[in-house]
């Protein structure tokens, strides 16, 4: 089309995209050639300060960097930076240029220049983004590694700790990026010959990675070797040898496992077929089984959204922290539209039977692998290839009884309470969700909503709750009823289900005061909105989320609130008829791709084709066309249904 229009700039943009594709497939030389052609065309057609020219300079710099031609990369990055500064000023794109220039300086051994560039990048990110944005933690990590290379261990430790603190507050103690921070600190201690401190940090990293990926993961093996080195430095040779054997055992298991990728996501068939001489996912047999399962495989739905909603500043995020076993923070920032897009994709999920939290990626993969194994269309394939079947069954994801049991999981979502955000909530709402509606137990229904700074809004709690309930129920009503028996009395409810939960239990004058206030708020709410009575379940749960209050009685009360809420969610989930509906396996594979893609920010060194495709094609907000194109890339698309 660009050729038909004879538009040189459009043609150059198309050549840029062609170069991007070549980079994703590992053809750096071809990409560099395309970027140079594009740059020449743009320089002839556009003003020299055009941002599009700066973007192409940046692409050329990245191509040179990938080829380890750091001086040439530096020159291109600097040209891009000059244009971006003139056009954008202190913008996050300028911060990106500073960061990449810092990377080039670092690889050239010019550490002071690299530190200076990273400081400029960090300064802009702190001014333009939230202080706990992932770009900020990335800058802190890079700075820490630069200081470490210089031998400035005290300065390195300070910035690594800043990164760790942000991740703990934002993501909780079990996120893989927290493990990355612990590992950075551990390796720093090792470099400073503080081996005991290093071991403690590295073992924390192992614990988190084991929680997310199971015991057999290449990063866990790598960290075991790092721990072993520390013990060797402490002259504990036998301990070091035992730990190295653990690492070797993991690598041996992985060498026979179909899961080669760090996040164990299924690869697109075009990539699989190029490697069809291997074993497991790369084998011809598995390719056939996978292909048939995509077309015909189905798996019963075992995922449901549990969405925490309510007026602003009522404590939704704090309750989620307690419920998901994370540390409370006294200075949480307000939830922005949907609580941080990466966090939303890396959703907290837990087993409704035992209340244990688990990695979303494993839940999805269990469904995919079990569907392939159980599909009648592939049974003969497996029976005819006993060695192949043994590989599939011994896959770590399927090595527990959970893989074949009919497990069910709830995904935790956190919505911002500001009215201006409600329009963004609508696409995510459905009668098939369970909603936890949070209110402030210290406020009456006609009191005005308070901001976190104590300012009174014109909206009162009744109006805010009406807005939420109308948004949840009126547009998503389901004619079906479900019968639930939580406290020994069977009661019928209408879909969607809204569970009423209270916060600010620390401000009450005792249990009776709390019960009275809860009952009064419930009665007032239903009296104003009687048509929603059959949708609302009054839990009587009142959370105390005051960060400073951690005495034994409070901790016990929080645990009981969590246990009670787990039980209520479980009973409702097990009563929902749609949870038994079969879902095509390609949906689970697509969800796996989307879920895994957001690890790209925490795995900057990844260079596999699969990770590059995800990083390029998956965004925080995607149109249906974007999703369709991504599905086609992975040969998962059949039709719009």
Automatic annotation (TrEMBL):
Domain of life assignment: Eukaryota
Keywords noted in UniProt: Repeat, TPR repeat
PROSITE patterns xref list: TPR, TPR_REGION
Protein name, per record: Uncharacterized protein
Record-linked SMART domains: TPR
Record has Repeat as a keyword: yes
TPR repeat intervals: 54-87, 95-128, 137-170, 179-212
């Amino acid at each position: 089309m660009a050729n038909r229009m004879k538009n040189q700039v459009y043609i150059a943009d198309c050549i840029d995209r062609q170069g991007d594709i070549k980079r994703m497939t590992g053809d750096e030389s071809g990409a560099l050639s395309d970027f140079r052609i594009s740059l020449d065309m743009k320089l002839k057609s556009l003003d020299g300060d055009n941002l599009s020219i700066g973007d192409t300079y940046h692409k050329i710099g990245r191509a040179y960097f990938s080829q380890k031609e750091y001086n040439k990369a530096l020159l291109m990055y600097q040209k891009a930076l000059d244009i971006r500064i003139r056009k954008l000023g202190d913008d996050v794109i300028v911060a990106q240029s500073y960061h990449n220039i810092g990377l080039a300086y670092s690889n050239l051994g010019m550490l002071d220049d690299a530190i200076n560039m990273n400081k400029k990048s960090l300064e802009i990110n702190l001014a333009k983004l939230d202080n706990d944005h992932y770009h900020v933690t990335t800058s802190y990590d890079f700075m820490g590694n630069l200081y470490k290379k210089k031998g400035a261990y005290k300065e390195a430790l300070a910035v690594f700790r800043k990164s760790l603190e942000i991740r703990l507050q934002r993501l909780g103690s079990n996120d893989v990026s927290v493990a990355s921070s612990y590992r950075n600190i551990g390796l720093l201690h090792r470099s400073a010959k503080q081996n005991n401190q290093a071991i403690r940090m590295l073992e924390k990293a192992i614990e988190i990675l084991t929680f997310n990926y199971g015991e057999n993961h290449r990063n866990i093996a790598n960290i075991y070797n790092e721990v072993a080195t520390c013990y060797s430095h402490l002259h504990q040779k036998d301990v070091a040898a035992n730990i190295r054997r653990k690492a070797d055992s993991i690598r041996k298991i992985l060498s026979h496992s179909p899961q080669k990728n760090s996040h164990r996501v299924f690869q697109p068939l075009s990539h699989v077929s190029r490697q069809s001489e291997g074993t497991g996912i790369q084998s011809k047999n598995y390719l056939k089984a996978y292909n048939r399962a995509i077309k015909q495989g189905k798996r019963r739905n075992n995922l449901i959204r549990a969405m925490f909603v309510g007026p602003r500043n009522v404590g939704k995020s704090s309750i989620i922290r307690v419920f998901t076993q994370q540390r409370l923070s006294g200075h949480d920032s307000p939830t922005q539209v949907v609580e941080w897009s990466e966090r939303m994709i890396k959703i907290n999920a837990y087993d409704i039977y035992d209340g244990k939290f688990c990695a979303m990626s494993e839940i999805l993969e269990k469904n995919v692998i079990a569907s392939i194994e159980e599909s009648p269309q592939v049974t003969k394939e497996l029976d005819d290839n006993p060695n192949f079947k043994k590989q599939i069954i011994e896959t770590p994801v399927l090595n527990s009884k959970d893989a074949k049991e009919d497990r069910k999981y709830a995904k935790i979502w956190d919505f911002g309470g500001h009215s201006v955000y409600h329009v963004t909530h609508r696409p995510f709402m459905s009668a098939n969700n369970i909603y936890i509606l949070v209110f402030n137990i210290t406020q009456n229904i006609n009191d005005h909503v308070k901001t976190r700074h104590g300012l009174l809004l014109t909206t009162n709690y009744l109006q805010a709750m009406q807005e939420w309930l109308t948004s949840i129920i009126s547009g998503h009503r389901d004619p079906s009823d479900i019968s639930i028996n939580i406290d020994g009395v069977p009661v019928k409810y209408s879909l969607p289900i809204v569970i009423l939960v209270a916060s600010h239990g620390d401000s009450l004058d005792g249990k009776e005061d709390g019960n009275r206030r809860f009952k009064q708020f419930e009665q007032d709410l239903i009296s104003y909105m009687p048509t929603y009575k059959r949708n609302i379940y009054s839990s009587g749960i009142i959370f105390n989320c005051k960060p400073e209050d951690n005495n034994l009685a409070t901790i016990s009360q929080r645990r009981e609130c969590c246990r009670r809420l787990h039980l209520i969610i479980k009973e409702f989930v097990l009563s929902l008829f749609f949870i038994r509906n079969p879902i095509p396996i390609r949906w689970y594979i697509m969800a796996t791709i989307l879920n895994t893609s957001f690890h790209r920010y925490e795995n900057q060194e990844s260079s596999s084709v699969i990770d590059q495709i995800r990083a390029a094609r998956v965004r925080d907000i995607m149109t249906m066309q974007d999703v369709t194109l991504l599905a086609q890339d992975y040969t998962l698309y059949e039709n719009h249904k």
